[in-house]
TrEMBL record:
Residues 462-518 form the PucR C-terminal helix-turn-helix domain. Residues 20-133 form the Purine catabolism PurC-like domain. This is PucR family transcriptional regulator. It comes from the Bacteria. Gene3D superfamilies: PucR C-terminal helix-turn-helix domain. It comes from Pseudonocardia hispaniensis. PANTHER family: CARBOHYDRATE DIACID REGULATOR, PUCR FAMILY TRANSCRIPTIONAL REGULATOR. Coiled coil: none annotated.
Length: 526
């Protein structure tokens, strides 16, 4: 199909398109690489021409500088060297003005340096060439802009997907006509599609500096780009058997994809922040007490958090075992807990306080009771001491279950302080003695404890022996084995205790008092 003179196809302007344009009357003297993209054109007849050119530009000349010594090839070769060093796209020589043909030295130098050399006929003003190039490069920029917008619009469709990362990688593979993959910095593949050599691509990426890269793996052309999201590093790569396609589209695709992933992450963060705020408000409302008139409205607010109307709930109070360190994990401490609940379909609202009041806990949550709750509580107890209330479904009585959870957390904290391995205390599962002890006033108990058992605690290993004796179900032999002493030593120490207590160690009252006084220590050894 023929085209109208002066009109060129869309896309970057190349030397081939200039030669093919009949209105310009150009001819090829030395071809070099005619696929070279042209960024601009400038007519220059003065010395040191290269300083006036930008990379990708073409220089037009009539050879005026060579007129006095047309046979001297040195200045002709020097001009070619300067143009090549400056990244010029080509040299256009106007014939029929000072020279009827291109000087031999100029042609020879262009051939050796592979600089495209074209001739401009006498009937073509240089201004016409410059105008055509300038219009062409402007059209090229418009084309590139349109292409970029199209790529962005296509990739932005991934934002509406349930899994934006996977959807984006799938689109990248389609656009690159090959494979696409998203790696973590460890090399773990987060999402991939296509049949490229993904493991070999990662090995090549890992061996290079963390910067945009272009390389080959066998017959595959690969482009990769590193980026950060929420403090974590990732590598995005596309691979195709078409090297020119990767060279042309690769940088735009990867840069646009990074922005889409950043946008998806921002949308996700915004959504999560909104959900966190609403969850915190719901926790506060339940803790303060829900009047009967607002029960239905409160259940409606709980429903988006995967709660079933009328289902049983538990309150959780938790305190971290160690300070959260950003260098270890850039995520907020509760992120993993929220993600686990989402994956398991577990109803959960959570409130986190950086500086809780003396009667509060750093993390307070309400979760739906059921099998999925056990796994979530196990995850929580990996990093937190955890107190769990009994189950309830009546929202009007929620405040008392918040107090239960806080009481259970205090029990867990006391037991952890004396070496207990368990990190979860469920108040509805504790024995009567434990429940009874939760009702005590610790300040009064401390004074009473010192009056009754202070001498025992201060008497060498007597308290240790009594605690182990009760932990071993009052078995003297087992007590001696765990203390690494002779059974007669245990009996002797217990006799000393009996003297202090004024009653046999096996008496029900003595056992009850000692068990209640040292329950946390006994349970830590059981």
């Amino acid at each position: 199909m023929s085209r109208v003179p002066g009109q060129r196809p869309t896309g970057p302007l190349t030397l081939r398109q200039l030669v093919d344009e009949p209105s310009l009357g150009l001819a090829v003297a030395e071809p070099g690489d005619l696929s070279t993209v042209v960024r601009g054109a400038h007519s220059i007849e003065i010395e040191d021409a290269a300083r006036w050119l930008r990379p990708g530009w073409i220089m037009l000349t009539t050879g005026l500088r060579f007129l006095e010594r047309p046979q001297d090839e040195a200045p002709q070769a020097l001009l070619v060297d300067q143009l090549v060093d400056a990244g010029a796209a080509a040299l256009l020589f106007g014939i029929g003005v000072h020279f009827d043909e291109v000087p031999a030295g100029l042609r020879e130098a262009a051939r050796e340096r592979r600089l495209p050399l074209l001739t401009v006929s006498a009937g073509t003003p240089f201004a016409a060439v410059e105008e055509f190039v300038n219009r062409g490069t402007l059209s090229s920029e418009i084309y590139l802009l349109r292409r970029t917008v199209w790529l962005q619009n296509d990739l932005l469709k991934a934002l509406s997907a349930t899994d934006p990362a996977t959807a984006l990688v799938t689109r990248l593979a389609t656009l690159s006509k090959g494979a696409a993959v998203l790696y973590e910095t460890s090399g773990r593949i987060i999402a991939s599609t296509g049949h490229g050599p993904l493991r070999l691509i990662w090995e090549e990426i890992a061996a290079r500096e963390a910067a945009p890269q272009r390389f080959s793996v066998g017959r595959w052309a690969v482009a990769s780009r590193p980026f950060l999201l929420r403090g974590a590093g990732f590598r995005l790569a596309i691979a195709s058997r078409s090297g020119p396609l990767i060279d042309d589209l690769g940088p735009d695709l990867l840069e646009t994809a990074e922005r889409v992933l950043a946008a998806a992450n921002a949308v996700r963060d915004l959504t999560m922040n909104q959900e966190r705020a609403e969850a915190a408000r719901l926790v506060s409302a339940l803790q303060a007490g829900v009047p009967a008139s607002r029960i239905r409205q409160t259940w409606d607010r709980l429903r988006p958090f995967r709660f079933r109307v009328g289902g049983e709930l538990r309150v959780i109070a938790a305190s971290p075992l160690a300070p959260w360190r950003v260098s270890v994990d850039p995520r907020r401490p509760s992120d993993a807990l929220l993600e686990e609940a989402h994956l398991e379909g577990l109803g959960l609202i959570l409130s986190e306080q950086d500086e809780p009041d003396p009667l509060g806990s750093p993390l307070t949550a309400v979760l739906a009771d059921g099998p999925a709750a056990d796994g979530w509580l196990t995850l929580l107890s990996g990093t937190h001491l955890t107190g769990v209330s009994g189950p309830f479904a009546d929202l009007t009585v929620a405040p008392q279950y918040f107090r239960e959870a806080l009481t259970a957390l205090r029990v867990a904290t006391r037991r952890h302080a004396v070496g207990a391995s368990t990190r979860i205390v469920r108040l509805d599962e504790v024995d009567f003695a434990t429940w009874l002890l939760t009702r005590r006033d610790d300040a009064q108990v401390a004074a009473r404890f010192d009056r009754h058992f202070g001498a025992l605690v201060r008497a060498g290993g007597l308290a240790e022996t009594v605690i182990m004796y009760l932990a071993c179900q009052q078995d003297v032999k087992k007590t001696a084995e765990r203390l690494f002493v002779h059974p007669n030593t245990v009996r002797y120490r217990l006799h000393k205790v009996e003297q202090q207590m004024g009653a046999p160690i096996t008496a029900a009252g003595v056992v009850a008092n000692l068990y209640l006084a040292f329950q946390d220590e006994i349970l830590a050894l059981s």
